[in-house]
Amino acid sequence: MDFRWEDHDDMSTILRVQWTIEPLAAPQPHLPCSHCGRMTAFRSSGTFRLNANGKRLDAWLIYRCLGCDGTWNRPVFERLAIGTIDPDQLNQLQANDAGLAAAIAFDGAGLRRFTSRVEPDGGVRVLKQVIIAVDSWTALEITMVVLRPVSVRLDRLLARELGMSRERVKALVNMGRLRVGSDGWRRGVRDGDRVVLDYGGDVQDRALGVAAGEG
């Protein structure tokens, strides 16, 4: 990070909020469907398929074609010796554990091993929570919590959730009033990102505090 809170004289006037970013839908791979005979999008069914071959085991997450009832099996692992598989993971696979299925389905980078075309997640939901409330803030700190990978850019997320244009975001950055780490704004939002807005003394800034989650 390229800023420090020590730069502020009174840390008791910092409004701290947390944004938890949740994707609305998992990425969808485009694959040739053996059932309907065309390239189409597939969606995770949340169900696993297991196949034992002697002392070895295959596991797949089943995807379904959006245009028909065709399926595609996304490998979780293949030909693993049963004795080497973590017992908890094996129980999750056998129980079609929703958490494990979601963790695999939201792994968009992993999907790109099987196809070059992957539709990104279908947008995000932002849950806002005040961590430290103050009566009259001079600086606003937003901490991002990203539980699963998302494709939304940081500048676009801030513009949308704070109710301003991206041009306004850029202007605040150029004025030095809106700050983040040294790797810039035109990138995907990441877990642990910390954004700081210094109060400029106008009504617009107070509205930003409300939009950020102040209440």
SSE diagram, text form:
Elements: E1 14-23, E2 28-32, E3 39-53, E4 56-65, E5 71-81, H1 87-94, H2 98-105, H3 108-111, E6 118-119, E7 124-132, E8 139-146, H4 154-162, H5 166-174, E9 178-179, E10 194-198, H6 203-214
Parallel strand pairs: 1-8
Antiparallel strand pairs: 1-7, 2-3, 2-6, 3-4, 4-5, 8-10, 9-10
Helix pairs in contact: 4-5
Total count of strands: 10
Compute the average pLDDT.
87
Major sheet details? 5 strands, mixed
What are the segments in which pLDDT stays under 50 over at least 5 consecutive residues? 5-9
Measured distance between first and last alpha carbons: 28 Å
Label the overall shape. Answer: elongated
Structure characterization notes:
The chain is of the alpha+beta class. Helices cover 23% and strands 36% of the residues. It has helices spanning 87-94, 98-105, 108-111, 154-162, 166-174, 203-214; strands spanning 14-23, 28-32, 39-53, 56-65, 71-81, 118-119, 124-132, 139-146, 178-179, 194-198. A hairpin with a 5-residue loop joins strand 4 and strand 5 (71-81). Helix 4 (154-162) crosses helix 5. The longest helix is centred in the C-terminal third of the chain and has 12 residues, at 203-214. It is elongated and about 70 Å long. The two termini are 28 Å apart.
Features:
36% strand; alpha+beta; 2 domains; 23% helix; 215 residues; five-stranded antiparallel beta sheet; single chain; 10 strands
Provide a brief overview of the structure.
The protein is α+β, with helices and mostly antiparallel strands and 215 residues long. The protein folds into 2 domains: 5-24 and 122-214, no CATH class; 28-119, no CATH class. The protein is 23% helix and 36% strand.
